[in-house]
Amino acid sequence: MSDRKTQRRQLKKQLGEADSYRQWYATAEKLDELDGTLAWREEAGCELLHEKLLRDHIAAMIRCRKRGDTRGLTRVLQESVYRHLGEIANPDLYAVARTGTKVLVTEFLDEVERSMNFVCDHDMPGVSMEQKLRLFRDAERVYGRPALMLSGGAAFGIYHIGVTRALWEVGLLPDVIAGSSMGAIVAGAVCTRNKRELESFFTEPDEIHLNAFRWLEPERIWRRKHAMDPSHLLEHIRTNIGSISFKEAEAHSGRTLNISVSPTRTRQKPRLLNSLSSPEVLVDSAILASCAVPAIYPPVTLQARDFEKGSEGSKPYMPTERWIDGSVHGDLPLMRMARLHNVNRTIVSQANPHVLPFITHHHERGPKATLKQAAASMAHAQVATALKLSRNSAPSSVVRPLLEQAHAMTTQTYLGDINVHFPFRPLLYRKLLSNPSRADLDMFIRLGEQATWPRMAMIRDQTRISRTFSDCIARLEAAIRNQNRPE
């Protein structure tokens, strides 16, 4: 028994010191074997799954494939995929073993992918290539697609680079990415780069400009009513991202960038800026606005591309409105993302320092974890109630807006379908509003990667059908182009 405890302790230490996902997974597999959870993955029978129905659907797909029955296979896929969608997405299925969930889920997803590719690559009687493409596009629209959402977090938000790099290295980085505050800077850096530039960004992080924060002198802080220099932050943003519109960014990178900004007026609504809602708005001005933490930076007037002044010209966008930190009202704009981009699965990277103490135990299971979650929820609810009462009774026109903002920050949703969060380490809070050193950059990136690796199996499984839709649609589009190309 003592040998097993020693071995387990050593493996957990190796898990925390892993330098790559491959190394982390190999160690996690040994731990799962030691804990008996590898056997759990292979065991038949699970109250969380309708095992017989899943196996029946797998068998039906195999029969249709072997007969070459693409029409029948399409009907089985339509029933099977949507029937089991919520079932196989249950987070409890991923709370037992570190390396993944039940082997049956993998077998089901394997067969769904094989069947979708079969329908894509084989003739369907009476259906043209164009009609088949429309069929896949309609099915994808009904099914939805994943999105990555990066929270605010000041210097903690640098860890988002590690999260995005971990996903990119295994081909799981979504095409739709949203960010607010510091998360907007990282989202902007990713979504303004093409494949070659993104590879350089992730493999050569020493090229990243780090000098974002500059404190003002005390007399200027008093006079200007904010503590940091916005021009210095804008220089940091432009050095890392450039000055490009949302429309131009999507055309260049192939990814859809979304940035949250909050209003300064109580009657104005928060905005999600992207190539659909604000195509000509400049990304650098949107990020600056999303980083404008009240009392730290002043509110920002957005800028848009002005082609009358040339390709680099700009003009104020909604010039009567000014915007502040996106985390205040919409750290994670879940509903707006779903509505605009047909998002069915949100991957949330959370680094907000005021949120971390309340979500640290979110992934844990068991009585002890339940008590911790209940205590955190009660504390959070009490803070929200106190702010609401203070806001309603505040007589001052200066204090009330600040209480409104604080209340908005405590009552919004900070978690998505799949959650990766910055580890709660109180000693790191001293680095929150300081420029990171190169050693800090490496440390934050590694923390992001290490936080992502345990969620990788869940992310891979729950985005797999969406990724297969994208692959099939791309192949069909290429086939139609080749078919219509003049000889």
UniProtKB/TrEMBL annotation:
Motif GXSXG in this chain: 179-183
Domain PNPLA: 148-338
Active site: 181 (nucleophile), 325 (proton acceptor)
Database matches in InterPro entries: Acyl_Trfase/lysoPLipase (IPR016035), NTE (IPR050301), PNPLA_dom (IPR002641), Triacylglycerol_lipase_N (IPR021771)
SUPFAM superfamilies per the UniProt record, alphabetical: FabD/lysophospholipase-like
Record key words, sorted: Hydrolase, Lipid degradation, Lipid metabolism, Membrane, Transmembrane, Transmembrane helix
Keyword RNA-binding annotated: no
Top-level taxonomic group: Bacteria
Entry's transmembrane regions: 142-161
Gene3D superfamilies xrefs: Cytosolic phospholipase A2 catalytic domain
Protein name: Patatin-like phospholipase family protein
